[in-house]
Amino acid sequence: MPQEKILICDDEQGILTYLKKLLQSQGYQVETFLGGRELLRRVEEGETGDADLLLQDVRMPDMDGISVLKKVKRLRAELPVVIMTAFGTIDAAVETIKLGAYDYVTKPFPKEKILSVIKNALEKEQLIQENRALKKELGKPILQESIIFRSSVFRETFELTLQVAASEANILVLGESGTGKELIAGAIHYNSPRKERRFLSINCAALTETLLESQLFGHVRGAFTGAISTQKGLLEEADGGTLFMDEIGDMSLPIQAKLLRVIQERDFIPVGATRPKSANIRFVAATNKNLEREVAEGRFREDLYYRLNVINIPLPPLRDRKDDIEPLALHFLKKYSVRMKKEVTGVTPEALALLIGYDWPGNIRELENVMERAIILARNEQLTPKELPIWRKQPEVPAKRDVELVSLENIEREHIERTLANTGYHKSRSAEILGISRKTLDRKIAEYSLHIPA
Questions:
Q1: What confidence category does residue 117 fall into, taking pLDDT thresholds of 50, 70 and 90?
Q2: Residues 201 and 349 occupy one common structural domain
Q3: For the chain, percent helix, then strand, then coil, each to nearest 5?
Q4: Would residue 240 count as lying in a domain?
Q5: Which residues in this protein are found as 4-aspartylphosphate (predicted)?
Q6: Which terminus of the chain has fewer CB atoms gathered within 10 Å of its CB, N or C?
Q7: 55 pairs with which residues across the strands?
Q8: Could you tell me the sign of the dihedral formed by the alpha carbons of 116, 117, 120, 126, in that order?
Q9: Considering the entire predicted model, what is its pTM?
């Protein structure tokens, strides 16, 4: 039975008695008031949350019902109000809806009608409160417990992340694939003043240039073949929030130029449009490439690099975070044990030693993959080396053997011949791999009498 408290205000004692008896029979707590001033005194002296709904007449002798509603909403904006009105005062009741009342009922009303309106009003308010609580929970800063680590080397990285999060500066996150760059980007957003707004991400390497442009900037109807409707881009959707751009080093130069304008001018033009739209966005970019080298070789704009690299956060690879392997492994063990409904509680010392001794070229992503596979294969409560595929990957020390001594000329010939074969005898591609010009490659082919299939 419900235990919500309902306040009823009406100048007719008979209505108050009837409604109190009806609502109490449904399990509600009820307080009644014969006038507006008495009601307002109760609301002023009470505390937020000590009433769940107000049932109020629109006409009262001591105060106008609309004035009462205005003061109630000023004192308790969140309190849902249902207005009771006679047939001749429907216009006034409609006015109360504009002022924030949930609904109105016309006297005389059947009990089913009033009970239904009250039930719906209370359910709506409960949904609003749950939504507000969820937003508050989602908006909580990402704390140390949310990012798994034990090592001092990653502690420095995490502390730097929290330190720079409060600023408005664009940030460049650097690190190998699988080191957790998006997680760090999320920590930056949710510990920043923008945490109430959206955090969106895009992988620049996963999309073609045309699709990436459309996803970022949006497009208007008819901008290109297949654009049957106008679509907002991520820049518009992320306005006021944070946009995480993963693999920024794979973005083409034309898109880089457009992104630079967004950062500098804080506006953009959707594909096919003519008018710019404003964009108040914080950019967090990430890459596993050496952007300084990309700039030097002309594949990345220098001006964009400096705009993004106001602050950079380098993420250490997992092989340099050996102390973090055990807590990360146990975290993934718990995650996939619950998901797969298996009773796996730990890792044997031998299996743990194997995990710690491995170099993890795929970093945390590889560790998660290994632990998921191990949980699938596990038959006991403890994971053993048998369930871990990494023992097959341990590097073997090559046996000593006699080395055939050959000339530098023979090595060069074999290397060129092997490169040509691997590229399907594509000369331009082979020359690029070898680091020589096409003209030099043609000369080497002739010099070594290499056979090129027709």
A1: very high
A2: no
A3: 50, 15, 35
A4: yes
A5: 57
A6: C
A7: 8, 82
A8: negative
A9: 0.58
